[in-house]
Amino acid sequence: MNPTVRARAFLTAHARVLLAIARDPACRVRDIALACHITERATSNVVRDLETAGYLTRRRVGRNTRYTIDADRALHHPSEAHLSVGRLLTLATPVPQAGERATPVTRAEGRGSGPTAPW
Hints:
By secondary structure, the protein is an alpha+beta fold.
């Protein structure tokens, strides 16, 4: 590979954050940031963008935040408008086999991960 050519991520930060939330709807911003290799501030901005665009909603549950993804929401770009968020997530996330649990986002600072839920 030519060292002067910068590597490009195939998925945008928005797609990676949405996938992390789909894997673990109760994950913390810190955990999403670690999983996506972006800063916590960037993660917060992306989550806000996704919420403003209607792709997800946030609700407080005690001291935690729980995310709900609108799987029926159409993708914004005209070339992908025929696809729903749920379809994209189905294509991009592994489906657990019978008896397996979905892989949650890894928790920072040794905090245990709770049960995962479908988006």
